[in-house]
Specification:
Helix content: 10-25%
Strand order of the largest sheet: 3-2-1-4-5
CATH class: Mainly Beta
Number of helices: 1
CATH superfamily: Nucleic acid-binding proteins
Largest sheet: 5 strands, antiparallel
Radius of gyration: 18 Å
Strand content: 25-35%
Order of helices and strands: EEEEEH
Number of domains: 1
C-alpha cells in the first residue's frame, strides 16, 4: 500500500501511516526500513498485517520511504516452496 507519515513519536518509537480516503495504520520503529527516521508527510510504501491483539487495528509492517522501496519485494514467509526448491530438498534428504 501507499500512504504518508501522519505522525511519528521518536521518543516512543512508533507512529501512524495514513492512506488517502482510508484509515490510519500504526507502525513501530522496528517496521521502518528507511536509512533515516520517518519524517512527517513522507510518502511511504508498506504492507498491512492483522494485529495479534484482539480488537486492535491492523499494523503497517515493512514501511519503506518511497525513494528506498526495493525493486522486487521479498516473498512472504508463508510462501509455498517452488517445485525446484522441493527437488533440491528431496535430493539433500537422499544424501543422509
Amino acid at each position: 500500500m501507499k500512504g504518508y507519515i501522519q505522525a511519528y513519536f521518536s521518543k516512543k518509537g512508533y507512529g501512524f501511516v495514513c492512506v488517502e480516503n482510508d484509515r490510519d495504520y500504526f507502525f513501530h520503529v522496528k517496521a521502518w526500513r528507511g536509512r533515516n527516521l520517518p519524517v512527517l508527510g513522507e510518502i511511504v510504501h508498506f504492507t498491512v498485517e492483522p494485529s495479534c491483539v484482539f480488537g486492535k487495528p491492523a499494523l503497517a509492517v515493512d514501511v519503506y520511504p518511497q525513494a528506498e522501496v526495493p525493486a522486487t519485494p521479498a516473498a512472504p514467509a508463508s510462501a509455498p516452496l517452488t517445485p525446484e526448491a522441493l527437488k533440491v530438498l528431496e535430493g539433500a534428504q537422499n544424501e543422509f
